[in-house]
């Protein structure tokens, strides 16, 4: 008699363990991927600006993307996010995105960088 009760107890424990694992999987599935949600709301130029932020700030930029995705999920943000908005957000939180700038000189259909023009004048 005792061995049947022990066997029944082992079966119940195994069943409870399987149920617990299934519940854990459901909880993991229920939480959305906030980063992917954020990326869906970026415009093309917004994606390019965010890529520059990723190159400069790495994991910190990814965390910012996750937090913004969470705000989209909660409905506190709406609409697309363009490059200017991405730049502004990072600037506001103290992580300005450095952009490569070029000054060019156009004359007679010819385009030269300002450094080339200054070298020619010397």
Automatic annotation (TrEMBL):
Q: What is this protein called?
A: Uncharacterized protein
> Which organism does this record belong to?
Infirmifilum lucidum
